[in-house]
Every structure is written in structure tokens, then in C-alpha cells.
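task queued by scheduler; priority normal; single chain, no ligands, no partner chains; default sampling; output format set to C-alpha cells
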Amino acid sequence: MIDSQSSPTLYLVGAGPGDPELITIKGMKAIQKADVILYDALASKELLMFAKPGCKLVYVGKRRGKRAFSQEEINQLILFYCHQYKNVLRLKGGDPFVFGRGHEEMEYALKRGVHVEVIPGISSALSAPASAGIPLTKRGVNESFWVITGTLSNGEISSDLYHASRSTATVVVLMGMSHLNKIMALFKEGRSAYEPVAIVQHATLPEQKFIRGDVSNISEIAKANDVDNPAVIIIGKVVEESLLAEQIQNVFVSSEMKIAV
């Protein structure tokens, strides 16, 4: 049993999908009392402005082609700062436990006597479709949705995408833009060339882009509109519901958002 009163505390905080206002109140309170914040590339830098004076800010971001630290190095940094400070905060984009390796960091810290508190965040898997007016579930349209990583640690695409393409579920693909053509080929074979597809880039931010098409043409539309990572791919009949959302006033679709069809 870890004594949380005497041991340091590691706060694993989900920063949300991009818009700094989408962090939870509990996450914001943790930021305000942290002694050290280790933050990711996808966590909003605006959130760091709420850290208390003297808080140490440490960037440990990882982006494709621009890796700053390996996961093992990040784990070691977490432990290093936990040995020096009482409240150490790990700020991660989205939700720490949705393809964020948050559980790996939690296990590493717990095994070394660090008290851990997890503060969930809003995953881009949920918020990106919503920000474009796409419901992940709608009665009479779909019965489930899958969230799948588009790129494994070895650089290959997930085998789950094959199974998803044979299902009727809405499929949300994170980190899949580098394999967009391969993914669309799977869905063309498993479903149809006309299966609706949407891509949301920079979800919830002022520069958000939203493109819509189908399996046969979404790659060309993405290229023509310079849509790339970070982006979320949504595949399924619910994409067609975004047509209605564009016609309804006051729906949460940014007025700055660029739409291409």
C-alpha cells in the first residue's frame, strides 16, 4: 500500500482534444498545484499559463519524424522529478488511457512507490466527430463504434482494421493518415467504394479542417486540401448526418472550420 501522504503524487491528466477550454475542472485544479509539468506535443500550451509561479515545465513531446524522447526516457524523467517534488503532473493530449500510453506510465510509477492519480480527458476519438456535427451513434443508423489506431508501434497498420471493415460499425481511426490509402483499400473490399468517410484535422481548434467524401475519393480530397496529421478518420453511415448539421444553427461546428466535399 502506497502512503499518499508521504510519497510524491503523479497526476496523469488528459488535456483534451486541443481546445484548452475542454479540459476538466479537476484537471485544471491539478495543473494549478503542480510543482512540475511534463507535457506532450498535442497538449494545449495555453494550459501551461495556469501553472503556479515557479512550476517547472518540461517538454517531452513525440511527433512522427520529430521524436524528442523515447517512452522509457519519459518514464525515467517522471521518476526523476517524483524524487525531487511532491506534485508531478503528466499532461497528455486527449485521454491518457486512449492510445496515450498513460497506463504504462502509471504502472512504472506505482511499481516504484509513487502515488498516482488519473484524471481522464476528452479523447479526440469522441470530440473530433462531434466538432464536425457527426454523431458517433444514432438510432436507426448504427449500433456501435470502434476506435482503432491506424499505426502500430512497428509502423504497420492494425489487423483490427481488417475486421472493422467487415463490420457495420462506425470506425474511428486515430493516427492513420500515413496509411490512408491502405485503410481505404480495406474498406473498399470489405464494404463499398461509396462508404462515407470524413476526416477532421486539428479538431476543436480555430484551424480545424473538415473534409468529407467516400472510400473511393477521400485520399484525393485530403491531398487537395492539405489535410494530414494530426487528424481523425471517421468511416460509416453516420458521416452523412453531418450534412444535416451544417444546416442547423447553433450546432457545435466552428465558424472558422473549413469544409471540403
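post-processing summary
- The chain has two domains: 9-119, 124-260.
- The domain at 124-260 is CATH 3.30.950.10 (Methyltransferase, Cobalt-precorrin-4 Transmethylase; Domain 2).
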